[in-house]
Design a protein that fits this description.
By secondary structure, the chain is α/β, with parallel strands linked by helices. Helix content is about 50%, strand content about 15%. The chain has two domains: about 5-175 and about 355-370, Glycogen Phosphorylase B (Rossmann fold, 3-Layer(aba) Sandwich); about 190-350, Glycogen Phosphorylase B (Rossmann fold, 3-Layer(aba) Sandwich), CATH 3.40.50.2000. The two termini are about 15 Å apart.
């Protein structure tokens, strides 16, 4: 039985988190030979995840440059990934989600008639400008994909609306696999993680904030900051903790506006510190797709700082509420969670629609069956 060669291509921290459990499970199976290529869109944040999950890339393209345009990044990624494909000659290329690396790697594989495996397939906001450019990245990737691993039934239906009906498998999201694995690792060092946050008073309830998306730059982000100031003022017994994204469009504004005593602006967190802090939080305000999926597994209500989300399953299940960037709505919904225990419990106990931690194993078995049992 000849091994099947698999190449995993990714460039950002969220991709690395969600592909880590898959890389691990395929790498321990003798039927497959695994290679890893990183484009390194998020250099520092990517390396943190690779170290945590002990993944060593075979190819590091190191594509990120200061003030690089999307056009430059896409073109460079397409060319460099194509060169890796010529060297590795894989049977399948794995991509995850909706980044520029996903689009470029899928296109490179398509040009060379190599099969594409899309993890987290079928997410849609149906708005090409939100999230930007991710919505178009994933729509185009779906047209080039050979195996679609959809996290939910809703994602499968989205693909069906686009007349994509073959080789679609609803398997949950690998982010839950990664989260459970990560928590198992960090539970051994509880005191070390608490000591990592010397400025935070853990005797108070924690409101965790993450916000970084391009569509929030400018006035929308200023509105979010105004809402955070108001929440902090209304709730002096709470600590609002915001690991501030490195992008200057976010960082400069956050440090200028958010200056209340119980708002703690800290450096961007490594993945293990982030999930530890998520576990300690009371509620989470975020525009992150991954956190929208992870937080329900921890029983944490989520207020989504976006006008639209491709993760409507969490909204419909009651885990999360879409609040956009409107100051009044953000404050109102946060106060409702803070002041209404019944409402808080209803959101925190809602069933997680994103999986049970077995997604990677399901994908392995599906591809084993396809290649070796037909």
């Amino acid at each position: 039985m000849a091994q099947k060669k698999l190449l995993f291509v990714f460039g950002t921290r969220p991709e690395a988190i969600k592909l880590a459990p898959l890389i691990k499970i395929f790498d321990t199976n003798d039927a497959f030979k695994v290679s890893v290529c990183v484009t390194a869109q998020h250099r520092q944040m990517l390396d943190q995840v690779l170290d945590f999950f002990k993944i060593k890339p075979d190819h590091d393209l190191n594509l990120m440059q200061p003030n690089q345009s999307l056009e430059q990044l896409t073109a460079n990624a397409l060319i460099k990934v194509s060169e890796v494909l010529d060297k590795e000659k894989p049977d399948l290329v794995f991509v995850q989600g909706d980044t520029t690396s996903v689009l470029a790697a899928s296109l490179a594989a398509f040009y060379k008639r190599i099969g594409v495996v899309h993890i987290e397939a079928g997410l849609r906001s149906f708005n090409k400008n939100a999230p930007y450019p991710e919505e178009i990245n994933r729509v185009l990737t779906s047209r080039m994909t050979d195996f679609h691993f959809a996290p939910t039934e809703a994602a499968r239906k989205n693909l069906a609306k686009e007349a994509i009906t073959e080789n679609i498998y609803v398997v949950g999201n690998t982010v839950i696999d990664a989260l459970l694995s990560g928590l198992e690792i960090i539970e051994k060092d509880e005191i070390d993680y608490r000591n990592y946050f010397p400025t935070i008073d853990f005797s108070k309830k924690i409101i965790l904030i993450t916000c970084h998306r391009r569509e929030s730059f400018g006035e929308p982000f200023k509105n979010i900051c105004a809402a955070l100031n108001e929440i902090a003022e209304l709730n002096p017994g709470f600590e609002l903790v915001y690991p501030v994204h490195l992008n200057p469009n976010i960082k400069n504004v956050a440090y200028q506006i958010l200056q209340r005593k119980n708002i703690k602006l800290i450096e961007t967190l490594e993945y293990p510190q982030l999930i530890w802090l998520m576990k300690k939080s009371f509620i989470i305000l975020t525009d992150s797709g991954g956190i929208q999926e992870e937080a329900p597994a921890l029983g944490k209500p989520v207020l989504v700082l976006r006008d639209v989300t491709e993760r409507m399953e969490g909204i419909e299940a009651g885990n999360a509420k879409l609040v956009g960037t409107n100051r009044e709505i953000i404050v109102r919904e946060a106060q409702k969670l803070i002041n209404d225990p019944d409402h808080y419990q209803k959101m925190s106990l809602a069933a997680n629609p994103y999986g049970d931690g077995t997604t990677s194993l399901q994908i392995l078995k599906i591809l084993e069956n396809h290649f070796f049992n037909n």
